[in-house]
Sequence to fold (151 residues):
Amino acid sequence: MIKQISLFLILAIGISSGCKKESINQTFCGEPTIVESTCTLDSNQIKAQIIGKWNWTQSISSWTMQKTNPCTDSINRQYEFQTSGTVKYSENGTYKSTGTYSFESSSGFKIRANDTPSTFWLNGWVSICDNYLIIDDSPVDGPKDIYVKAQ
Fold:
């Protein structure tokens, strides 16, 4: 009986130590270091560079200037932009929805991304600075959202 309990405890510890818990990377919670001289506003470059996965790192409210991030909201949002014009949205590593994205250049270069059930919505002027994607809708009362390229 003691051997069975010991064996069970050893197996339980071995299995639990091999499990990976979902945690929010602390680098997503710090103040992003954006170097303005590295930013591109060129629409063709942005269209090419946006492809891939981006993790939310900060939002700034246009009304209060309050900053939120994955640590303050206990959520990690990720968007995966594909060349086909589709975007996949995940929260804390769990897929939630797929939608579409498009660009418009009527007054600057803007992106619109959303899905039909309205699980997510991105809208604003877009720029990419090094590994940061910035979607700024603050001129029309929306947030300024910052994402970092997933490794």
In short: Strands lie at 39-40, 52-60, 67-68, 77-81, 86-91, 94-104, 110-114, 121-129, 132-136, 144-149.
